[in-house]
Design brief:
Layout lengths: L14 E3 L4 H10 L4 E5 L2 H5 L2 H10 L3 E5 L8 H11 L5 E6 L1 H15 L5 H4 L1 E2 L9 E5 L11 E6 L2 E6 L7 E4 L9 H20 L5 H23 L4 H21 L3 H13 L3 H16 L4 H10 L7 H18 L16 H8 L3 H6 L6 H11 L1
Parallel strand pairs: 1-9, 2-3, 2-4, 4-6, 5-8, 6-9
Antiparallel strand pairs: 7-8
Helix pairs in contact: 1-3, 4-5, 7-8, 7-9, 7-11, 8-9, 8-12, 10-11, 10-14, 11-13, 12-13, 14-16
Length: 382
């Protein structure tokens, strides 16, 4: 008899969701035993008033400072700046922002508990020595899923490096649609597709398990049902809330199952041509679904059904899943070809070569990829 395979899934300790969560933040901070909090955010969140929305009730319970210099796709220099600030005796880190902000909040919390370590010491897996100080995450986009993952991503000399540790998981996550309502349609579209890419890639990843499958499928369904509405009618708080929950579920899925070749490709051309992450993974998604279809036809049938393509024969369902994603890109007015982004065709062989260096991602991909395969994918994308 085959022994049952064992899985481990670690999630944020507490999730609070709804409208008006700022009324609860002081209570949560007190419950964590905090005396001195650092809000990690960026200048945009501060200008929009979202920091003050949290700072005011939080300050009734604890002393509060703000670091608002996080940049998109943060470099090691940015992470080290955050780390220097975080060593000033803070016992609570509060993130208000998107994935980059939450990643830097994870760094801040780790350094606050491990002042003898440097940020570069954390790079890799399980290299944070002592448990981080408590963290509260308030995502302001519905896409990265960083609020539910054990990863913090740092750009080190043009390459994305991961700090992976269970100590990065949030103590409390606040999901409030009003904090995402300031996203313009274009950002709503790209972050929503980022969440969908996380869900689909996690579902067809070789690292998937029954629990991550459940997270991923529910995320797909919620995104299929709500992304276009959130994009077209940004004041629909129900659609916004469901997109935020979907992003968190997708984060929980890929935080354990891992993403696959789509993210490798997106990182490769996205970093070189300064293309936003959500845009690059969105463009890549239908092409890698199509490439992997021969190896995961049964899985793509379930993806198609989650995306609303019901009543199809299995042979048609996989292709309909790909078509549904392409249609969604068009409706959201996102690019569908590399040529739309002015990527030179002459660069494709080098891009194909570079993507093959990401061995970890490729090892989870259900279909093997050689250089010739990689080049064909890039050519189809172009």
């Amino acid at each position: 008899m085959n022994k049952c395979k064992m899985y481990t899934v670690q999630l944020p300790k507490r999730v609070v969701f709804g409208i008006g969560i700022e009324e609860k933040i002081g209570e949560e901070a007190k419950g964590l035993g905090a005396k001195r909090a650092l809000i990690v955010t960026d200048e945009t969140m501060k200008k929009l008033g979202l920091c003050e929305k949290v700072k005011k009730p939080l300050r009734e319970m604890v002393e509060v400072d703000i670091f608002d210099k996080v940049e998109p796709e943060p470099t090691l220099d940015v992470a080290e700046t955050v780390a220097r600030v975080a060593t000033d005796n803070y016992d609570l880190i509060v993130a208000i922002g998107g994935g980059s902000v939450m990643d830097m909040a994870k760094v801040a919390a780790a350094v606050a508990a491990n002042p003898e370590q440097q940020v570069h010491d954390f790079l890799g897996a399980n290299r944070i020595e002592n448990p981080s100080v408590p963290k509260i995450f308030i995502p302001t986009t519905a896409g990265t899923g960083a609020e539910a993952t054990p990863f913090a991503i740092v750009d080190v000399k043009g390459k994305k490096r991961s700090i992976a540790s269970s100590y990065n998981l949030a103590d409390v996550v606040f999901i409030d649609a009003s904090f995402t309502a300031t996203m313009p349609p274009g950002i709503t579209a790209s972050t929503g597709m980022d969440a969908l890419s996380h869900a689909i890639e996690a579902f067809i990843s070789l690292g998937s398990n029954p629990l991550t499958d459940s997270f991923a499928l529910e995320a797909m369904k919620m995104i299929a049902d709500n992304l276009e509405e959130a994009y077209s009618h940004g004041n629909n708080m129900d659609a916004r809330l469901r997109m935020s929950l979907a992003a968190m579920l997708a984060g929980a899925a890929f935080g354990h199952a891992g993403v696959i070749v789509g993210h490798v490709i997106a990182h490769t051309f996205g970093a070189k041509y300064k293309i936003p992450h959500g845009v690059s993974v969105a463009l890549t998604l239908p092409y890698i679904m199509d490439y992997n279809a021969p190896a995961v036809k049964d899985r793509l049938v379930r993806v198609a059904r989650a995306l609303g393509e019901a009543g199809l024969a299995e042979a048609a369902a996989a292709s309909r899943a790909v078509a549904r994603v392409k249609s969604l890109l068009e409706k959201l007015e996102l690019p569908t070809k590399l040529s739309d982004l002015n990527v030179p065709r002459a660069d494709l062989p080098k891009l194909a070569e570079d993507m093959l260096k990401a061995k970890g991602y490729l090892a989870r991909n259900p279909r093997k990829i050689e250089h010739e395969d990689a080049l064909k994918i890039f050519e189809r994308m172009w």
